[in-house]
Description:
By secondary structure, this protein is an alpha+beta fold. The chain is built from twelve helices and 19 strands. A hairpin with a 4-residue loop joins β3 and β4.
Amino acid sequence: MSTAPSINAHVGLNTHPHHPSAVVATVTGSAWHIAQAHLSVRGFESVSADTLVMARIDREEPYWAQRAADALTAERITVEITPQLREAINEEWTWPDYPMSWCTRSEIREVSNEAQKIHDDIRHGRLIVHAHAHDGWTTKAVGSYRDGSSVVLHGENHLRTVETSFPTAAEALVAFDRVHGDAMRPGPPTPTDVERQADEALNTLRTAAFVEAEPTLPRIETVPAYAADPADPDATLEAFVNEHREWAKWRTWSDHTTHLVHDPDPRETAWTFAAYETPVSDRMWHLTLTAATPDPLLQSLLISLAHGDAWDTALGSPVIERTVSAATRSLTDAGWKHTIDGRHIRWQTPHGDAGVQFDVFAAQDPRIHLPTWTLWAGLDVDRPTWAIHASRYTPAPLLAALTEDLAHGTGTRQTRTTRTEHRKNSGITAPTVPPAAAGPAAGRIR
C-alpha cells in the first residue's frame, strides 16, 4: 500500500513577539495557500501574504494552536513548533474565581470558545450591535446577525454569552429597552482592554501591501465606525424592509419623491430620509447621506428610525441648547476637540479625520436652506470622504445615536494585499520570531 505524498507546505508556529499568549504562523512552500486556508478556518488571521496570527480573548491560543497543528499534520502538511510555544502549550493554568466553578477545564474552554465566536462575529460584521447597557454587574448588549435573527448578549470577554434570542431586531430592542431603560446607550460598548490587546496583536504584525500584478488576498480589519466600508445599498434596504413590515419599498424617478440612487458617486447623496405629519403636509425634517457613508452609521440610523419617536418631531419646534448638548454629549465624553469658528461650532477627533459641525445661523433662521448639522470623515468638512447632512429639526435622539457611533463605534474595512517576494521583506520567519517576555505569568489571565 503506497503512502500519500506530503503537501509541499511548511507551517512554523511560534509565540507572538509582543503579545504574551498570541501565536504567529508563517507559511512557506508551493502549496502555501492550502496551509493558509486550514489555518484561517482554525482561528488564524492573515497579517501578510505568508504570516497569520491567532489572537483570542480567552488567552487559550497555545491550546488551539496545538489543535490546528494536529489537523495540519493529519492533512500531510509539515508543522514545526518552537520550544517557547511548546512550553506554553504544556503549561498548566487555571482561571481564578471562575464564576462557573462546577465546570471542568474542557467545559471552561467550550464556554470561552463560544464567547470567542461572538467576538469574531462582531469584529467581522456578521453581528451588528445596536445598543448596550451596564446592569450594575456587567455589560449587556443587543444586536442582529446578518441572517436576520437578533440576540441579547450578557457579559464581557471570555464570559460573554447569548442570553436571549429574538426573530427580529425590533423585538430584541423593545425587550432590551424595557429591562434597561435609561441605562441603554446606542451602538456597541467601548472595547475592553483584552479586546484591544487582541487587536493590537494583529495590527502590530500587519505589513504594507505590495502593488504587483499577482493574485490579491482580502483582509478584513476592525476600524473606527467613521472609517468602515460603505453599506451595500440594495442589500441594506431589502433587509430593512423585510425586517420591518410596517415599511414599504417602491421605485420612482419623480423629483418630488425621495428615492435611493443606484451606483452614485461616493461623494453624492445616495440616501434621503424625511418626516412629514401627513403625506401632503410640509416636511418636518430631512437628513441625507452620501454613497460612501459607512455601514455602521447607516445601520444605526435605520434602527433609530424603526425604534423610537424620530418621526414625531413637530414642525417649527426650536433648536435649543439642550438639543445640541444631548446630540454631542458622546463626542465630549470621547475627548473630541471642541472649537467655535464664527457661525460654526465644531467637534473633531484628535487626528482631525472626522467631525461634527453645527451651523448656528441655519439653526436659528428657517429661511437659510443650508444643513444645520454636518457629520463627516476625510480631509476636512469641505473635502469629506463621506458626509451626513441634517436639517434644523432633526430629532436629538437620532443625532445622538449617530454621534455615539462616531465617537465609540467600530466597523470593518476590507483591504487587499498581494503575493510577492515578501518573505525577504517581512522580517518574520519561523522559527526565529523573538519570544515573548519570559515570566511565570507568561501573559495568562489567571
